[in-house]
Structure formats: structure tokens, C-alpha cells
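Listing S7. Sequence submitted for prediction.
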Amino acid sequence: MKSVKFGVRGAVQPLAVALARAGVQANWLTFAGFILNIGVALLVSQGWLLPGGVLFLLCNALDFLDGAVARAAGTAGRYGAFLDSVLDRYSEAVVFVGLLVWFSRGEDVLAVAVTASALVGSFMVSYCRARAEGMGLNCEVGLLQRPERVVLLGIGMILADYALLPVLMVLAVLTNLTAGQRMRHVGKLFEQRH
């Protein structure tokens, strides 16, 4: 699964170097990505799923670009990484909330429940990693990390009539399974220490 992350990182590197040379700050890109995701949420809450999906994929490319710009400019630091992580969670959440609003308007109880489960699973994947890293453990394991979630959700919104509910079902199952994998991984690390 790391191939998605590293493939995108390699693709944005030349642009990152150019932006760093132009004086663009990585944190600006982090905030811009968050603001654009609010726009995505507003679009999808009104049922504009195709443009919302396209914008979602484009603006989440900034998530890979901000870190690359920070590294290219030599300004990568702990606060920037913290800010990026926090705004990534907010960015993901607002889009799911936009979908929840849209499905609620249509009184689609199944879609609301599946979307809420995908939202919880997405947060738990990140939470498990953050808690593990807070204890000094590496926890970047599991089936469905953020890059894969972004790609799947974006494609689901673009192909909304055919794929959105199945994609959300896959996200609901695999995000929670990934959180389970991370819990198991941390459990094994603790067993090895004792």
C-alpha cells in the first residue's frame, strides 16, 4: 500500500522544489488543502458529487505537496507535521460530514450508517497510529492508510451513481479492519518487550 504514497511523492517532487524556490511555505499549502476540502464538503452536501470528487482528489494532492515543499525548502519540522496531521483529520471529516448531509436529505439510512462507519474507521486508523507513536512505537501498518482512502473516496464520488455506496462500504469495513490490524500490531510489540 505504500506504493500509492511513494508514487505520488515522487510525482510531486519537481513541483515541490519549484514552489520552495518561489518562496511558497508548506503551511500555506496545508491550510489551502483544508479550505478546499471545506469546499468539497459543501459541494457534496448539495449533491454535486462528480465535481466534488474531482476537487477532492486534486486538493488532497496538496497533502503530499506540503511535506515535499517543507523538505525541499529545508523547513520541515515537528510543528508542520503536527499541523498537517490535524488538518488532514479535519479535511477528511468535513467531506464525510458533507456526504452525511446529502444522504440525510434523501433519508437514506443505510448510506448514512455506512458513511458514519467509514468516518469512525478513518479516525481510528489515525488515532491508533498517533497513540502508538506517542508511546514510541512505529505503527504505520495496515491495509488502508490515508492515501488509499483518499483515492477510493474520490473515485467513489466521481462514479457516484455506480460506486459511491459500495466504496463507502469498502471504506467502512477496511478502515475498521486496519484499526484492528494496528491494535494487534501494537499488542505484539508489547508482547515482544516482555
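Caption to Listing S7: primary sequence and predicted C-alpha cells for the chain studied. The chain has one domain: 2-193. The domain at 2-193 is CATH 1.20.120.1760 (Four Helix Bundle (Hemerythrin (Met), subunit A)).
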